[in-house]
Amino acid sequence: MSTLAHTMMTAARSADSGLATPGELDRYPYAEAPGVDRVGSPVWDGAEPDLGRVGRRTAGSRGRGLHGQLVQQLGQMIVSGDLGADRPLVPEEIGQRFEVSRTVVRESLRVLEAKGLVSARPNVGTRVRPVSDWNLLDPDIIEWRAYGPQRDDQRRELSELRWTIEPLAARLAAGHGREDVQQRLADMVEIMGHALGQGDALTFARADSEFHSLLIQVAGNRMLEHLSGIVSAALQVSGGPVTGCERPNETSLAHHGRIVDALAAGDGAAAETAMRQLLTVHPEVERVVPAPREH
To answer: What is the pTM of this model?
Structure first.
């Protein structure tokens, strides 16, 4: 086993035992939001009563203490529908409910405003914005939606997005011929192979995520490069309609290997074909990505 493979597998096992590692996206369940029209001031009864007990942090809020935890808590409540569109958010009430300072509340609301979840206007205050205003490509919002009542829509949309951008990225990446990148991609396939043999799904998933992110980053298209984080988030929130990346098996591993071989040969068409095959390994995907129409 290569040193890289050993290091990555060891890190994955440490994370599995409860030690936080970079890039980890923790999972958390949502209760289904009642289908009622909420009006008036926020009802905080369903929120975590003690922020100190909120141990799950997403990538965007990790390592920021109470501020990051409050961002996550309010973000979850907004995305799940517990705080519906146009709902007023009173900083004083939030501070009292979660026992945090006005500074923490103010900074948390600014983060949520940057994500498009809330808006703050003079003489109007801070209110929850409709879904159409959210930054749906934000990694935190991707995760919150994927584990909330909108999870089916989120996973379908992510699958469709991956189907759109990743085959193109594979084709473009084949024209760059960077040996260091090709070696790194080959290393990820090696790690996935070792992980598969040992039944280590966590290491497999992490190597898979790096494989796809790196492939997009070397496609030579800066706009595509900005989407690499979205693909990583999509891989982290699997569990709905699945692709070959989300169920480790020999077929998935073989398709990854074919992509690497096509890149090494500079064969963009073969790389694109292998990626499409990878994204449609499982029959469930047929519900997500329709077959091409005959013209």
So the answer is: 0.66
Instruction: Map the chain to HEC letters.
Output: CCHHHHHHHHHHHHHHCCCCCCCCCCCCCCCCCCCCCCCCCCCCCCCCCCHHHCCCCCCCCCCCHHHHHHHHHHHHHHHHCCCCCCCEECHHHHHHHHCCCHHHHHHHHHHHHHCCCEEEECCCEEEECCHHHCCCCCHHHHHHHHCCCCHHHHHHHHHHHHHHHHHHHHHHHCCCCCHHHHHHHHHHHHHHHHHHHHCCHHHHHHHHHHHHHHHHHCCCCHHHHCCHHHHHHHHHCCCCCCCCCCCCCHHHHHHHHHHHHHHHCCCHHHHHHHHHHHHCCCHHHHHCCCCCCCC
User: Using one digit for the tens of pLDDT, what is the confidence trace for 222-279?
Assistant: 888 888 877 777 777 654 444 556 567 899 999 999 999 999 999 999 999 999 999 8
- Is the pLDDT at 198 greater than 90? The verdict is yes
The yes-or-no verdict on residue 191 having pLDDT over 80 is yes
For residues 236 and 246, give the distance between their C-alpha atoms in angstroms, rounded to a whole number: 9
Looking at this protein, which amino acid is placed at residue 157?
E
**What average pLDDT score do residues 189-194 get?**
96
d(CA 168, CA 219): 8
Q: Tokens 């890289």 correspond to what residue?
A: 4
- Answer whether 187's CB lies under 8 Å from 2's CB: yes
The residue assigned the tokens 């983060």 is 111
Per the model's pLDDT, the better-predicted residue between 295 and 110 turns out to be: 110
Tell me which residue has tokens 């989120």. Answer: 154
